Amino acid sequence: MENSEGVKIESTVVTEEPLISALDIALFVVIITVAYFWYFKRDKQSSSSEKKPYTIQPSSLSSIEQTSNSSFIKKLKSTGRSLVVFYGSQTGTAEEFAGRIAKEGARYKMKGMVADPEECDMADLVEMKEIQKSLAIFCIATYGEGDPTDNAMDFYEWLQNGDADLEGLNYAVFGLGNKTYEHYNEIAIYIDQRLEELGATRVHEIGLGDDDANIEDDFVSWKEKLWESVCSHYGIEETGEESNIRQYKLVDCSEVLPERIFSGEISRLKSYENQRFPFDVKNPYLSKIAVNRELHKSGDRSCMHIEFDIDGSKMRYDTGDHVAVYPKNSSELVDKIGELLNADLDAVFSLLNTDEESSKKHPFPCPCTYRTALTYYLDITSNPRTHIMKELIEYASDPKDQEKLKLMASSTPEGKKEFHEWILRDNRNIVHILEDLPSVKPDLDHLCELLPRLQCRYYSISSSPKVYPKSIHITAVLVNYTTPTNRVNKGVATNLLAQLIPTNEELPQPTIPIYIRRSQFRLPPKSQTPIIMIGPGTGLAPFRGFIQERDYARKEGREIGEMVLYFGCRKKDEDFIYENELQEYVANGTLTKLHLAFSRDQPEKKYVTHLLEQNADELWNIIGEKSGHLYVCGDARSMAKDVHSIIVKVVMEKGQMTNSQALNYVKKMEQQKRYSADVWS
Q: Where in this chain does the record put each Flavodoxin-like domain (predicted)?
């Protein structure tokens, strides 16, 4: 190309044509065009990197560090550490447990660090043997239908697909799960077994925490035995030194400019004023509340139908997905903490990690006011864990309060009993503790360090994007209940939502941060596949979207399969939600059958499970003879388990199978996504 250009230029000179020929102009245009696109592509990439929200990450390797040092091994070596605690966490509990283990390592002369596997090159586990008396601990939660948490997905896949030689790696695993779910601690169990298969040495047996019972007790009991095993394995002894060392130090930010102070944003400063797509867990969309109406017809309970406006957001959802809602704590509780601790809630502060090597510089977005931290970032309504009891001891001036806290922080049978009764059974949160132990006056900055992060709440989406592409609907019961100490505890998210009532168009509409979480709860690919939906109470939510989508297909002229819905509530005239909609779908043929159970409209209680047993022939006809799909949504603790037992029984009887064959048949349905559950406990 250059040669041909040279020949033509020479020709230009010889023939004495104008100095700037048409070809020169063309080349000039090409060069300018290439330079233009190169410049703006680079600028776009730079801008894209700038748009990545400020991320609050664990004490591990930040994204910036990864570019030059993605090896946690190098960090362990350079800082003289021998203990690394990885976590797979969706709600923050596993990360909290990991931090507690790493902190306690100092008592056994094992300096520790917490690491996020998503930010680490996990292939470097093979080099752990190069560090004397090293140990890797994994605090791993199982999420959804037996899935790894988002931040542990890459590590899980690396274990599945790789064949690294992990001989010389010493490890232990603690799993976080919930026994009401079928895939109890499945990911932690797999990781524990797979590490051993790859040659690693298990220092202590796996611990399985059950969030449906007392996961704190499970963790503390396992942790105590873990350190016994560690001492035995390495031939070391506990130093006896307490590890109540502050992880963060207080920084006065009274001189910080107002525009540099966080006011509730999840990650990026001013993100709600300057919204940037895509929206996710670290960058939620500030949605307007378009509709908020009551669904219950009477009674003292409340169920809300709420519609989030996503018009113009570029957000897309599928039927069956979940929407995450970011709540905030009530101003009443926040003010109470300020009053009890005699603190200035409007003082601006920051908490800075005392470990300069850590990439998690702050426990939450800083700087901010104490009011902002307590309102948007910290969980002040859940039951505090035992390590918080331990940290509060030094702030108790009354010996009786001190002794009570010491007892609850201990791992003795008496201590566990007291913690279970006084904290868990009586349902005390941090505000109640400060009220009932009046001599306990912790520094507010230390309390902010101790409290867990306030988590978003997930709701099944009760609409179809085919029908409502510009809005997301949810169906939510208002949570209010009286505790054994005669206090009224209120659900953080639902009580906030209940206050967000749209007004006329002239006034600003109420808003709340949201994002969409993808789900595996999906309609069959073919619209003619028959389905059975079992959803009592607000378990109806995703099925409202399913029915809307099938109704849309029917109106387009497509063939749709049978749709059978089982719905139950207390009383027909009180809490039969979406009654008119459902009856209309029955009338137009979209909903083939509507089986209703009103538990309190007759002397003997009747539930959807009773109706399932009565309709065994219909059930087998759809899931057995027609290879249809079955869906369950609602309470995991009892309803979903009862449904599963009934399905197995029907398959046995109508399919003429043994119990073992029926169980295998139902298991195969689950594997084929023909039996799906969207449940909670």
A: 83-227
Residues whose CB is less than 8 angstroms from the CB of residue 75 and which lie 6 or more positions away in sequence, other chains included: 61, 69, 81, 113, 357
The pLDDT, as a whole number, for residue 638 is 87
pLDDT, residue 70, reads 57
Examine domains 72-234 and 269-327+456-519 and report if their fold is the same. Answer: no
120: annotated active-site residue:
no
Would the annotation count 146 as a binding residue? no
- What is the three-class DSSP state of 622? helix
> What is the distance between the alpha carbons of residues 490 and 479, in angstroms, rounded to a whole number?
6
Residue 150 falls in the annotated catalytic set: no
Each residue of 447-489: pLDDT tens digit?
999 999 999 999 999 999 999 999 999 999 999 999 999 999 9
Question: How far apart (Å, rounded) are the C-alpha atoms in residues 532 and 659?
Answer: 22
633 is catalytic: yes
Catalytic residue among 217, 551, 575, 678: 678
Residue 185 labeled ligand binder = yes
269-327+456-519, CATH topology level: Elongation Factor Tu (Ef-tu); domain 3 (2.40.30)
Distances (CA, A) of 118 to 16, 51, 57, 422: 66, 20, 10, 38
82/9 Cα distance (integer angstroms): 69
* 457 labelled ligand-binding: yes
Residue 221 near residue 411 (C-beta atoms within 8 A): yes
Token code pair at residue 8 = 């033509």
In whole angstroms, how large is the CA radius of gyration of the chain?
Answer: 29
Catalytic residue among 134, 460, 464, 676: 460
Q: Which residues contact 380 (CB under 8 A, 6 or more apart)?
A: 329, 333, 334, 337, 374, 429, 430, 431, 451, 454
Check 227, 358, 633, 635 and give the catalytic one: 633
Alpha helical stretches, state H, 384-478? 386-392, 399-409, 413-419, 430-436, 444-450
Asked whether residue 311 is marked as a ligand-binding residue, the answer is no
Residues of the chain with pLDDT under 70: 1-70, 240-244
**77 is written with which tokens?**
């070596």
Could you check whether the bond before residue 367 is cis, i.e. omega within 30 degrees of 0? yes
Distance of CA 387 to the CA centre of its chain: 23
Domain spans in the chain, listed from the N-terminal domain onward: 72-234, 269-327+456-519, 328-452, 531-679
Predicted confidence (pLDDT) per residue in 135-167, tens digit = 999 999 998 778 999 899 999 999 999 899 999
Helix axes 153-161, 186-197, angle to 10 degrees: 40
Tell whether 141 is in a known binding site.
Answer: yes
Domain 328-452: which CATH number of 3.40.1550.10, 1.10.10.60, 1.10.1040.10, 1.20.990.10: 1.20.990.10
Instruction: Check: CB of residue 112 under 8 Å from CB of residue 103.
Output: yes
Closest CA to 293 of 571, 505, 501: 501
d(CA 389, CA 246): 15
Q: Is 94 annotated as a binding residue?
A: yes
Q: Is 109 left (phi over 0), alpha (psi -120 to 50) or beta?
A: left
Distance CA 86, CA 88 (A): 7
Neighbours of 11 (CB within 10 A): 12
What φ, ψ does residue 479 adopt, rounded to 5°?
-100, 115
Residue 545 one-letter amino acid: G
DSSP class of residue 363? Answer: S
What are the residues whose beta carbons fall under 8 Å from the beta carbon of 544, sequence distance 6 or more?
A: 462, 463, 473, 475, 578, 581
